[in-house]
Design brief:
Largest sheet: 8 strands, parallel
Oligomer: single chain
Strand content: 15-25%
Shape: globular
Distance between the termini: 57 Å
Length: 407
Protein backbone atom coordinates (compact mmCIF):
# COMPACT_ATOMS: atom_id res chain seq x y z
CA UNK A 1 0.00 0.00 0.00
CA UNK A 2 2.84 2.38 0.95
CA UNK A 3 4.61 1.61 -2.35
CA UNK A 4 1.43 2.40 -4.23
CA UNK A 5 1.10 5.75 -2.42
CA UNK A 6 4.75 6.58 -3.16
CA UNK A 7 4.23 5.73 -6.86
CA UNK A 8 1.14 7.93 -7.02
CA UNK A 9 3.01 10.77 -5.31
CA UNK A 10 5.90 10.49 -7.79
CA UNK A 11 3.45 10.41 -10.69
CA UNK A 12 1.70 13.52 -9.44
CA UNK A 13 5.05 15.27 -8.93
CA UNK A 14 6.13 14.33 -12.47
CA UNK A 15 2.87 15.61 -13.91
CA UNK A 16 3.26 18.86 -11.97
CA UNK A 17 6.78 19.26 -13.34
CA UNK A 18 5.58 18.67 -16.90
CA UNK A 19 2.72 21.11 -16.41
CA UNK A 20 5.10 23.74 -14.99
CA UNK A 21 7.39 23.36 -17.99
CA UNK A 22 4.38 23.74 -20.26
CA UNK A 23 3.42 26.98 -18.52
CA UNK A 24 7.00 28.28 -18.83
CA UNK A 25 7.01 27.52 -22.56
CA UNK A 26 3.62 29.15 -22.96
CA UNK A 27 4.80 32.21 -21.04
CA UNK A 28 7.98 32.40 -23.12
CA UNK A 29 5.93 32.23 -26.30
CA UNK A 30 3.73 35.03 -25.03
CA UNK A 31 6.79 37.08 -24.14
CA UNK A 32 8.21 36.54 -27.63
CA UNK A 33 5.01 37.81 -29.23
CA UNK A 34 4.68 40.77 -26.83
CA UNK A 35 8.33 41.73 -27.44
CA UNK A 36 7.31 43.26 -30.78
CA UNK A 37 7.17 46.73 -29.29
CA UNK A 38 7.30 49.86 -31.42
CA UNK A 39 9.71 52.61 -30.38
CA UNK A 40 6.93 54.52 -28.59
CA UNK A 41 6.17 51.45 -26.46
CA UNK A 42 3.01 50.36 -28.24
CA UNK A 43 2.47 46.83 -29.51
CA UNK A 44 2.82 45.93 -33.19
CA UNK A 45 -0.29 44.19 -34.53
CA UNK A 46 0.71 41.89 -37.39
CA UNK A 47 -1.64 40.33 -39.92
CA UNK A 48 -1.84 36.54 -40.00
CA UNK A 49 -0.58 36.44 -43.59
CA UNK A 50 2.58 38.45 -42.89
CA UNK A 51 5.97 36.69 -43.02
CA UNK A 52 7.46 35.40 -39.78
CA UNK A 53 9.41 38.14 -38.01
CA UNK A 54 12.21 37.74 -35.48
CA UNK A 55 14.91 39.91 -33.93
CA UNK A 56 17.16 36.84 -33.57
CA UNK A 57 19.40 38.15 -36.35
CA UNK A 58 19.08 41.18 -38.65
CA UNK A 59 15.68 40.64 -40.35
CA UNK A 60 16.37 40.29 -44.07
CA UNK A 61 14.36 40.77 -47.27
CA UNK A 62 15.69 39.51 -50.63
CA UNK A 63 14.67 40.83 -54.06
CA UNK A 64 16.44 39.53 -57.18
CA UNK A 65 16.11 37.86 -60.55
CA UNK A 66 18.10 36.24 -63.34
CA UNK A 67 16.81 36.93 -66.84
CA UNK A 68 18.48 33.81 -68.24
CA UNK A 69 17.57 30.98 -65.86
CA UNK A 70 15.85 29.66 -62.76
CA UNK A 71 17.58 29.09 -59.43
CA UNK A 72 19.70 26.07 -58.60
CA UNK A 73 18.59 24.06 -55.52
CA UNK A 74 21.62 25.20 -53.53
CA UNK A 75 20.78 28.85 -54.34
CA UNK A 76 17.22 28.36 -53.13
CA UNK A 77 18.54 26.91 -49.87
CA UNK A 78 21.13 29.69 -49.41
CA UNK A 79 18.45 32.39 -49.62
CA UNK A 80 15.78 30.46 -47.68
CA UNK A 81 18.28 30.01 -44.84
CA UNK A 82 18.57 33.80 -44.53
CA UNK A 83 15.04 35.12 -44.98
CA UNK A 84 11.30 34.44 -44.88
CA UNK A 85 10.46 37.29 -47.26
CA UNK A 86 11.49 37.62 -50.94
CA UNK A 87 10.39 38.98 -54.31
CA UNK A 88 11.28 37.69 -57.78
CA UNK A 89 12.44 40.61 -59.93
CA UNK A 90 10.79 41.83 -63.15
CA UNK A 91 12.48 39.60 -65.77
CA UNK A 92 13.25 36.41 -63.86
CA UNK A 93 13.82 33.43 -66.21
CA UNK A 94 12.37 35.38 -69.15
CA UNK A 95 14.97 34.15 -71.67
CA UNK A 96 14.41 30.57 -70.54
CA UNK A 97 10.62 30.46 -70.17
CA UNK A 98 9.47 33.47 -72.20
CA UNK A 99 7.34 34.76 -69.34
CA UNK A 100 8.22 36.40 -66.03
CA UNK A 101 5.02 34.96 -64.54
CA UNK A 102 6.25 31.41 -65.16
CA UNK A 103 9.68 32.30 -63.82
CA UNK A 104 8.08 33.49 -60.59
CA UNK A 105 5.85 30.40 -60.45
CA UNK A 106 8.90 28.15 -60.65
CA UNK A 107 10.57 29.86 -57.69
CA UNK A 108 7.40 30.08 -55.61
CA UNK A 109 7.15 26.30 -55.82
CA UNK A 110 10.87 25.82 -55.18
CA UNK A 111 10.95 28.03 -52.09
CA UNK A 112 7.69 26.68 -50.67
CA UNK A 113 9.02 23.15 -51.01
CA UNK A 114 12.07 23.83 -48.80
CA UNK A 115 10.36 26.35 -46.51
CA UNK A 116 6.54 26.33 -46.63
CA UNK A 117 6.16 29.45 -44.48
CA UNK A 118 8.32 31.69 -46.70
CA UNK A 119 6.51 34.56 -48.48
CA UNK A 120 7.35 35.00 -52.17
CA UNK A 121 6.11 38.05 -54.09
CA UNK A 122 5.28 38.63 -57.76
CA UNK A 123 6.69 41.86 -59.28
CA UNK A 124 4.60 44.25 -61.37
CA UNK A 125 5.28 47.86 -62.36
CA UNK A 126 2.57 50.52 -62.21
CA UNK A 127 4.37 52.90 -64.59
CA UNK A 128 6.98 51.15 -66.76
CA UNK A 129 5.47 48.71 -69.26
CA UNK A 130 8.29 46.15 -69.03
CA UNK A 131 7.65 43.49 -71.72
CA UNK A 132 8.57 40.50 -69.51
CA UNK A 133 5.19 39.37 -68.07
CA UNK A 134 2.68 37.83 -70.46
CA UNK A 135 0.26 40.74 -70.00
CA UNK A 136 2.77 43.27 -71.36
CA UNK A 137 4.29 41.31 -74.24
CA UNK A 138 2.56 43.40 -76.93
CA UNK A 139 3.78 46.72 -75.52
CA UNK A 140 6.72 46.76 -77.92
CA UNK A 141 7.27 48.66 -81.18
CA UNK A 142 6.27 45.56 -83.16
CA UNK A 143 3.22 44.93 -80.97
CA UNK A 144 2.08 48.54 -81.22
CA UNK A 145 2.51 48.47 -85.02
CA UNK A 146 0.16 45.46 -85.20
CA UNK A 147 -2.38 46.86 -82.74
CA UNK A 148 -2.38 50.64 -82.41
CA UNK A 149 -5.35 50.40 -80.02
CA UNK A 150 -2.87 49.46 -77.29
CA UNK A 151 -1.46 52.99 -77.28
CA UNK A 152 -4.50 54.23 -75.32
CA UNK A 153 -2.92 52.60 -72.24
CA UNK A 154 0.41 54.38 -72.73
CA UNK A 155 1.75 57.76 -71.63
CA UNK A 156 2.73 60.44 -74.15
CA UNK A 157 5.10 63.36 -74.09
CA UNK A 158 2.82 66.37 -73.38
CA UNK A 159 4.88 68.57 -75.71
CA UNK A 160 5.30 66.30 -78.75
CA UNK A 161 2.40 63.89 -78.33
CA UNK A 162 4.74 60.94 -78.96
CA UNK A 163 4.77 57.85 -76.80
CA UNK A 164 7.26 58.09 -73.95
CA UNK A 165 10.08 55.58 -74.30
CA UNK A 166 12.44 54.07 -71.76
CA UNK A 167 15.70 52.98 -73.38
CA UNK A 168 17.75 52.31 -70.24
CA UNK A 169 17.46 49.12 -68.25
CA UNK A 170 17.10 45.45 -69.18
CA UNK A 171 14.81 46.17 -72.17
CA UNK A 172 13.21 48.91 -74.24
CA UNK A 173 9.79 49.80 -72.86
CA UNK A 174 6.97 52.30 -72.90
CA UNK A 175 5.20 53.91 -69.93
CA UNK A 176 1.67 53.31 -68.67
CA UNK A 177 -0.93 56.06 -68.32
CA UNK A 178 -2.50 55.63 -64.87
CA UNK A 179 -4.88 58.53 -65.54
CA UNK A 180 -6.86 56.30 -67.93
CA UNK A 181 -9.62 54.45 -65.97
CA UNK A 182 -9.78 51.74 -68.64
CA UNK A 183 -6.07 51.13 -68.25
CA UNK A 184 -6.37 50.90 -64.45
CA UNK A 185 -9.07 48.23 -64.77
CA UNK A 186 -6.91 46.20 -67.17
CA UNK A 187 -3.81 46.64 -65.02
CA UNK A 188 -5.52 45.43 -61.84
CA UNK A 189 -6.87 42.35 -63.63
CA UNK A 190 -3.37 41.60 -64.95
CA UNK A 191 -1.79 42.01 -61.51
CA UNK A 192 -4.34 39.69 -59.90
CA UNK A 193 -3.84 37.10 -62.64
CA UNK A 194 -0.07 37.29 -62.13
CA UNK A 195 -0.51 36.47 -58.44
CA UNK A 196 -2.89 33.59 -59.15
CA UNK A 197 -0.87 31.96 -61.94
CA UNK A 198 2.43 32.26 -60.10
CA UNK A 199 0.96 31.13 -56.79
CA UNK A 200 2.73 34.05 -55.13
CA UNK A 201 1.99 35.14 -51.57
CA UNK A 202 1.54 38.73 -52.68
CA UNK A 203 2.77 41.39 -55.04
CA UNK A 204 5.46 44.08 -55.19
CA UNK A 205 4.26 47.18 -57.03
CA UNK A 206 7.05 49.33 -58.42
CA UNK A 207 6.96 53.08 -59.12
CA UNK A 208 4.31 53.90 -56.53
CA UNK A 209 5.90 57.18 -55.47
CA UNK A 210 4.17 60.28 -56.81
CA UNK A 211 6.45 63.29 -56.45
CA UNK A 212 8.37 65.84 -58.50
CA UNK A 213 11.43 63.57 -58.67
CA UNK A 214 9.51 60.73 -60.33
CA UNK A 215 9.38 62.53 -63.72
CA UNK A 216 5.74 61.82 -64.53
CA UNK A 217 4.49 63.60 -67.69
CA UNK A 218 1.56 65.25 -65.87
CA UNK A 219 1.11 68.64 -64.25
CA UNK A 220 -1.38 67.56 -61.60
CA UNK A 221 0.45 65.15 -59.31
CA UNK A 222 -2.46 65.15 -56.86
CA UNK A 223 -4.76 63.76 -59.54
CA UNK A 224 -2.14 61.13 -60.42
CA UNK A 225 -1.80 60.12 -56.77
CA UNK A 226 -5.58 59.77 -56.56
CA UNK A 227 -5.55 57.61 -59.69
CA UNK A 228 -2.89 55.33 -58.22
CA UNK A 229 -4.88 55.19 -54.99
CA UNK A 230 -7.86 53.90 -56.97
CA UNK A 231 -5.61 51.28 -58.60
CA UNK A 232 -4.40 50.04 -55.23
CA UNK A 233 -7.89 50.05 -53.72
CA UNK A 234 -9.16 47.88 -56.58
CA UNK A 235 -6.12 45.61 -56.38
CA UNK A 236 -6.51 45.23 -52.60
CA UNK A 237 -10.13 44.18 -53.08
CA UNK A 238 -9.56 41.78 -55.96
CA UNK A 239 -6.30 40.09 -54.91
CA UNK A 240 -7.84 38.56 -51.81
CA UNK A 241 -7.56 39.23 -48.08
CA UNK A 242 -4.56 36.99 -47.38
CA UNK A 243 -2.05 38.39 -49.88
CA UNK A 244 0.71 40.93 -49.20
CA UNK A 245 0.71 44.20 -51.16
CA UNK A 246 4.04 46.09 -51.22
CA UNK A 247 4.25 49.63 -52.59
CA UNK A 248 7.73 50.81 -53.55
CA UNK A 249 8.56 54.29 -52.22
CA UNK A 250 4.89 54.83 -51.34
CA UNK A 251 5.05 55.31 -47.56
CA UNK A 252 4.43 59.06 -47.92
CA UNK A 253 1.78 58.83 -50.66
CA UNK A 254 -1.36 59.23 -48.55
CA UNK A 255 -3.70 58.19 -51.37
CA UNK A 256 -1.95 54.80 -51.60
CA UNK A 257 -0.99 54.20 -47.96
CA UNK A 258 -4.25 52.64 -46.68
CA UNK A 259 -4.24 49.84 -49.25
CA UNK A 260 -0.65 48.64 -48.91
CA UNK A 261 0.64 46.15 -46.33
CA UNK A 262 4.27 47.12 -46.81
CA UNK A 263 6.51 49.84 -48.18
CA UNK A 264 10.02 49.73 -49.56
CA UNK A 265 12.39 52.61 -48.82
CA UNK A 266 14.56 52.27 -51.92
CA UNK A 267 17.81 54.20 -51.48
CA UNK A 268 18.62 54.41 -55.17
CA UNK A 269 20.88 57.46 -55.17
CA UNK A 270 22.78 59.93 -53.02
CA UNK A 271 19.84 62.33 -52.64
CA UNK A 272 17.78 59.80 -50.69
CA UNK A 273 20.67 58.74 -48.46
CA UNK A 274 21.55 62.21 -47.14
CA UNK A 275 21.42 62.80 -43.39
CA UNK A 276 18.19 64.80 -43.44
CA UNK A 277 16.29 62.16 -45.39
CA UNK A 278 17.57 59.29 -43.24
CA UNK A 279 16.31 61.05 -40.10
CA UNK A 280 12.96 61.69 -41.76
CA UNK A 281 12.66 58.05 -42.81
CA UNK A 282 13.18 56.76 -39.27
CA UNK A 283 10.10 58.73 -38.29
CA UNK A 284 8.15 57.38 -41.24
CA UNK A 285 9.18 53.82 -40.34
CA UNK A 286 7.68 54.32 -36.87
CA UNK A 287 4.47 55.64 -38.41
CA UNK A 288 4.33 52.63 -40.74
CA UNK A 289 4.77 50.27 -37.77
CA UNK A 290 2.06 52.04 -35.75
CA UNK A 291 -0.29 51.40 -38.68
CA UNK A 292 0.55 47.67 -38.46
CA UNK A 293 2.44 47.70 -41.74
CA UNK A 294 5.83 46.43 -42.95
CA UNK A 295 8.92 48.47 -43.87
CA UNK A 296 11.66 47.27 -46.24
CA UNK A 297 14.86 49.31 -45.91
CA UNK A 298 16.82 48.73 -49.12
CA UNK A 299 20.43 49.85 -49.48
CA UNK A 300 22.99 48.93 -52.12
CA UNK A 301 26.76 49.03 -52.24
CA UNK A 302 28.17 51.69 -54.55
CA UNK A 303 30.66 51.03 -57.29
CA UNK A 304 33.85 53.07 -57.50
CA UNK A 305 33.08 56.65 -58.41
CA UNK A 306 29.31 56.05 -58.53
CA UNK A 307 26.72 57.96 -56.54
CA UNK A 308 23.77 55.97 -57.80
CA UNK A 309 22.81 52.37 -57.10
CA UNK A 310 22.87 50.93 -60.59
CA UNK A 311 20.84 48.09 -62.05
CA UNK A 312 23.03 45.19 -63.08
CA UNK A 313 26.29 46.39 -61.55
CA UNK A 314 27.74 42.88 -61.51
CA UNK A 315 30.89 43.65 -63.50
CA UNK A 316 31.93 46.66 -61.43
CA UNK A 317 35.52 45.96 -60.37
CA UNK A 318 35.94 45.15 -56.70
CA UNK A 319 32.27 45.60 -55.90
CA UNK A 320 32.03 42.53 -53.64
CA UNK A 321 34.82 43.80 -51.39
CA UNK A 322 33.26 47.25 -51.31
CA UNK A 323 29.92 45.71 -50.35
CA UNK A 324 31.59 44.13 -47.31
CA UNK A 325 33.35 47.42 -46.48
CA UNK A 326 30.20 49.53 -46.85
CA UNK A 327 27.81 47.19 -45.03
CA UNK A 328 28.39 48.34 -41.44
CA UNK A 329 27.31 51.95 -42.08
CA UNK A 330 24.16 50.94 -43.95
CA UNK A 331 23.26 48.16 -41.52
CA UNK A 332 23.63 50.69 -38.69
CA UNK A 333 21.34 53.15 -40.51
CA UNK A 334 18.72 50.41 -40.71
CA UNK A 335 19.11 49.34 -37.06
CA UNK A 336 18.77 52.88 -35.72
CA UNK A 337 15.26 53.19 -37.16
CA UNK A 338 14.17 49.55 -37.30
CA UNK A 339 10.74 48.67 -35.92
CA UNK A 340 8.94 45.32 -35.63
CA UNK A 341 8.40 44.04 -39.18
CA UNK A 342 11.14 46.27 -40.57
CA UNK A 343 13.38 44.36 -42.98
CA UNK A 344 16.86 45.12 -44.31
CA UNK A 345 17.93 44.47 -47.90
CA UNK A 346 21.58 44.61 -48.99
CA UNK A 347 23.10 44.00 -52.44
CA UNK A 348 24.47 46.12 -55.28
CA UNK A 349 21.86 45.55 -57.97
CA UNK A 350 18.69 43.66 -58.80
CA UNK A 351 20.32 40.71 -60.58
CA UNK A 352 20.78 37.47 -58.67
CA UNK A 353 24.56 37.75 -58.97
CA UNK A 354 24.61 41.34 -57.68
CA UNK A 355 25.45 40.29 -54.14
CA UNK A 356 22.40 38.16 -53.41
CA UNK A 357 24.47 34.99 -53.04
CA UNK A 358 27.23 36.59 -50.97
CA UNK A 359 27.58 35.57 -47.33
CA UNK A 360 27.76 38.53 -44.92
CA UNK A 361 28.63 37.26 -41.41
CA UNK A 362 27.37 40.38 -39.60
CA UNK A 363 23.88 39.77 -40.96
CA UNK A 364 23.87 36.39 -39.23
CA UNK A 365 25.11 37.57 -35.82
CA UNK A 366 22.71 37.38 -32.83
CA UNK A 367 20.90 40.73 -32.56
CA UNK A 368 18.01 40.53 -30.13
CA UNK A 369 15.16 42.98 -29.71
CA UNK A 370 15.85 46.72 -29.34
CA UNK A 371 15.90 47.97 -25.75
CA UNK A 372 14.20 51.22 -26.73
CA UNK A 373 14.14 53.98 -29.31
CA UNK A 374 17.28 55.50 -30.79
CA UNK A 375 18.95 58.45 -29.07
CA UNK A 376 20.37 61.55 -30.70
CA UNK A 377 23.70 62.29 -29.03
CA UNK A 378 23.35 66.04 -29.57
CA UNK A 379 20.02 67.72 -30.45
CA UNK A 380 21.71 69.61 -33.26
CA UNK A 381 24.14 66.88 -34.29
CA UNK A 382 23.99 63.83 -36.55
CA UNK A 383 25.26 61.11 -34.22
CA UNK A 384 22.75 58.50 -33.12
CA UNK A 385 22.90 55.45 -30.86
CA UNK A 386 20.66 52.52 -30.07
CA UNK A 387 20.89 49.45 -27.88
CA UNK A 388 19.81 45.93 -28.77
CA UNK A 389 20.02 42.82 -26.60
CA UNK A 390 23.23 41.71 -28.31
CA UNK A 391 24.49 44.82 -30.08
CA UNK A 392 25.25 48.50 -29.53
CA UNK A 393 24.86 50.73 -32.57
CA UNK A 394 26.48 54.12 -33.23
CA UNK A 395 26.21 56.06 -36.47
CA UNK A 396 27.20 59.51 -37.69
CA UNK A 397 25.10 60.21 -40.77
CA UNK A 398 26.97 63.41 -41.57
CA UNK A 399 30.44 61.83 -41.52
CA UNK A 400 28.92 58.59 -42.85
CA UNK A 401 30.65 56.47 -40.24
CA UNK A 402 29.24 53.76 -38.00
CA UNK A 403 30.16 51.12 -35.45
CA UNK A 404 28.15 48.09 -34.44
CA UNK A 405 29.55 46.46 -31.30
CA UNK A 406 28.36 42.86 -31.04
CA UNK A 407 28.08 41.55 -27.47
Amino acid sequence: MKNKIRFQAKSIKALCTIYSLFLVCLHSSGQEQSSLFISDGSDFKAQSYFPKFSWETTPMYYHFGDIDRVLEPEEVKFIADRTDFICMEKSHAYNLLGDQVLGTKHEVEAFHEVKPEIKVLFYYNSYVAWPFPRFNKEFTPDGIAKNEELTKFLARDPKTGKLLEKTRGPAFSYYFDAMNPEFREWWVQSAVEGIKISGADGIFIDRMNVDVNANYPVDDLTALAEAKGKMMAALREQMGPDKILVGNNAATTKEVFPYCDAFMFEHYNASVTNKENLLKEWGVMERVAKAGKISIYRFGAKGKGKNDITTGATKTDGIEKRSHDQLEFHQACYLIGAQPYSYFQWNWGWNLEDGNLVDYPSLQKPLGAPKGAFKRVNPEGWEFTREFEHASVWVDTEARKAKITWH
